Amino acid sequence: xxxxxxxxxxxxxxxxxxxxxxxxxxxxxxxxxxxxxxxxxxxxxxxxxxxxxxxxxxxxxxxxxxxxxxxxxxxxxxxxxxxxxxxxxxxxxxxxxxxxxxxxxxxxxxxxxxxxxxxxxxxxxxxxxxxxxxxxxxxxxxxxxxxxxxxxx
Length: 153
What we know:
Blueprint: E1 6-12, E2 17-24, E3 27-32, H1 46-55, H2 73-82, H3 93-99, H4 108-119, H5 141-150
Antiparallel strand pairs: 1-2, 2-3
Helix pairs in contact: 2-4, 3-4
C-alpha cells in the first residue's frame, strides 16, 4: 500500500458521489462518501483505484489493505470478523457475534456491542458492514444499498 499520508478522493459514477479516503502510515484511517471531495484531496492512490474498480464490478476482498481500527478491542474484534465475510455473502448480527472471539451471541448486551461496532466502522466498504443484513452500516443508507446491490445481496 502507498505509504503517503493524505486525503484521496475520486468520483464514483455508480454511487453518484465521491469516495474519499484518509491515509497515514500506510493504513486507511477512514472512508467517507461525500457529495464533494475536500479541496486538497488528491486522486492518485492504489487502494482508491481498487475501490473504484470494485464499484465498477471488479470483485475484490481488500483483505491485504491495512485499516487503522482505533476502537476498543471488543469492537475491533467485531470489525475484523466482518472483514472475513466473503464478497457476495451476508450474515446477520447474531452470526457475526458467533464469528467474533469473546462475544456471546445469546447476550443482548453483546449483540448491542456488535451493532455499536458496525455503526462506528471507520472504513465501510473495506470493512464490509453492508454484508450484515440486520445491522447498521456507517455508510450513508443510499451507499449501503448500492453496495448490497452491487454484490447481489
